[in-house]
Amino acid sequence: MAFWAVLDACVLHPIALADALLWVAHVEVYQPLWSRDILEELRRSVLERLPQANIDRRITAMAEAFPEAEVSGYAPVIEGLTNDPGDRHVLAAAIVGNAQVIVTTNLRHFPTEACQPYGVEAQHPDAFLTHALQIDTERVISALARQASSKQNPPISFEQLLDRLAEMTPAFIEEIREAMQELEARNPARLERLLGS
Fold first, then answer.
1. b/e string for 129-138 if b means 16 or more Cβ within 10 A?
2. Are residues 180 and 95 in the same domain?
3. What phi and psi values does residue 11 have, to the nearest 5 degrees?
């Protein structure tokens, strides 16, 4: 596993983005981490739009797919932190989980001066996924192809998935499209295999 990253509730909320992050973890580009507090925050944020059973099913599936993802024992660390009070539990989980990154859209809640002393960096999912692509381009392409093929109700094409993700992660999608063009020019059969995986 290349590195550890805490996924904040705000990036686990939009389904397409959350699935992309989890599929990239599934192909072992990084190890995802979260805490019970993060999952509770996720549950509260989607409760207005989804039935409780759907949320519980999703959280159970995440726990089964990544049994080592849940960080615990971070409560004593919270008190000494200086980032946004509402998100200190997230930084504490990152510290205890030895994460290098917190993936979040709330970057202002994790200023550099609050995170850097603990070797943690807050990254927007666009920057995080772009970095993952640079680590292992083919695995990330394969992960998104698997994400698209797993959607059956309703089905979604690979291109439709990229279009949807481009709304939240435009730089990442631009880079993935460029990487795919290069791979197609160099080895079209290899790209076809990745998209079929």
1. bbbbbeebbb
2. no
3. -95, -10
Chain centre to alpha carbon of residue 132: 10
- What pLDDT sits at residue 46? 80
Per residue in 127-170, pLDDT (tens digit) is: 999 999 999 999 999 999 999 999 877 889 999 999 999 999 99
The distance in angstroms from the start CA to the end CA of the chain is 20
* Burial of 183: CB neighbours in 10 Å, binned 0-12, 13-18, 19+: middle
pLDDT at position 69 over 70: yes
pLDDT of residue 197: 62
Handedness of CA 64, 66, 68, 70 (dihedral sign): negative
169 and 108 in a common domain: no
The residue that leads in pLDDT, 152 or 30, is: 30
For the ranges 42-56, 80-94, 114-128, the lowest mean pLDDT is seen at 42-56
What residue type is assigned to position 100 of the chain? Q
The sign of the CA dihedral 174, 155, 19, 41 is: positive
Give Dmax over CA atoms of the chain in angstroms.
54
Q: Which helix (H) or strand (E) holds 62?
A: helix 52-65
Indicate if 30 and 114 belong to the same structural domain.
Answer: yes
From CA 95, how far away is CA 174, in angstroms rounded? 32
